[in-house]
Amino acid sequence: MNGYAPIYTMIVAAFFGSLAYVMHIFRTRRETLDRLTPAQEAVNGGSRERIASIRPIISRYSEAAWLSGLALAIILFFVFKVTLLFAAGFGLTLALVLVEIEEWNYERRLQRLEMQLADAIDLMVAGLRAGSSLPSTLQNITRELRDPLRGAFEDMLGRIRLGEEPQTALQGLLARLPLDSVRLFTTALSVHWSLGGNITSTLASLGRSVRDRIEVTRRYSAMTAQARASTVAVLLVSYLIAYVMWSHDRLRFEAFFRTEVGQHLALLVIVLQAVGVYWQSRMSKIKF
User: Fold this and answer.
1) Could you give the CA distance from residue 50 to residue 214 in angstroms, rounded to a whole number?
2) Helix 199-248 with 84-129: angle, nearest 10 deg
């Protein structure tokens, strides 16, 4: 093993260097997209700075998942004296699993927001067809909404009452809720406030589109649930089998892992598990 130590060190250093580079790319991309949003192009001066400082209601914690994997690798290596490459493999597997959990939770919260937005649009259509004006309709439906959408709408209406341009306030709403459905909603209201027109039919079509998106997302999630469950089952079963083998014949099991072939094969299994988790994650995503 001593002869392979420099190679293992280079591989682990390349892994963590690549991880840091990927995190930097994701962070840079997110900041770039924030700067290129129409919200920041439509305003100037203090309004531009205010919108740029607004953070989305739903936060992401992908960095925490990668930091947890790094912490596990460090603990295994320094505390439990696990081989460096094994520690890196277990850390990578944990990080990818936590990323999957974080993305699942993030998508679930997005679907909840889109459902609230669809309900709000339906209420707006009913109020407008009853003869109410757009500002009063927005004020009335805000009382019926639940958080977190209610807080975002109250902030938007409060800024409009204080004299801010409706288009700027709508872009602030988009900054808080960076969803495609919210982008369509704010664009429709901005065009109506600028040019007028029949906003009722536009919102009715938009409401149907939002509900169709939710329906497609739910069906796709149901279709891919089996693949996600099988991935978790394979991970758990592999470690369960390893535990059973270790408990029945501990001496041979430990002797196998002391050999170079055994360590390399075990490491290959760990790396392939991490690759499988990432691959399944990419195949289970839909963009529409």
Assistant:
1) 31
2) 160
Residue 273 exposed, middle or buried by CB count within 10 Å (0-12, 13-18, 19+):
buried
* Digit-coded pLDDT (tens) for 129-144: 988 888 899 989 988 8
Q: Is the peptide bond before 166 cis (omega within 30 degrees of 0)?
A: no
Q: Where are the alpha helices (DSSP H) in 145-195?
A: 149-161, 166-176, 180-195
- What does the chain come to in residues? 288
d(CA 211, CA 48): 32
Report yes or no: 82 and 76 within 8 Å, Cβ to Cβ: yes
The residue whose two tokens read 């497609």 is: 216
Query: What CA–CA distance (Å, rounded) separates 56 from 179?
Result: 10
**Could you identify the residue written with the tokens 């959990």?**
101
C-beta of residue 38 within 8 angstroms of C-beta of residue 171: yes
Structure-block tokens of residue 268: 């290959």
The pLDDT tens digits of the residues spanning 190-246 come to 988 888 778 899 999 999 999 998 888 888 878 877 777 787 788 888 889 988 988
Q: How far apart are CA 257 and CA 207, in angstroms?
A: 59
Helices (H), 44-83: 45-53, 62-78
Which residues fall within 8 angstroms of residue 32, CB to CB, at 6 or more apart? none
What are the residues whose beta carbons fall under 8 Å from the beta carbon of 212, sequence distance 6 or more? none
Give burial (CB, 10 Å; 0-12/13-18/19+) of 29.
exposed
Closest alpha carbon to 115 in 219, 207, 178: 207
End-to-end alpha carbon distance in the chain: 50
Between CA 35 and CA 62 the distance in angstroms is 21
SS3 44: coil
Question: Helix (H, G, I), strand (E, B), or coil: what is residue 58?
Answer: coil
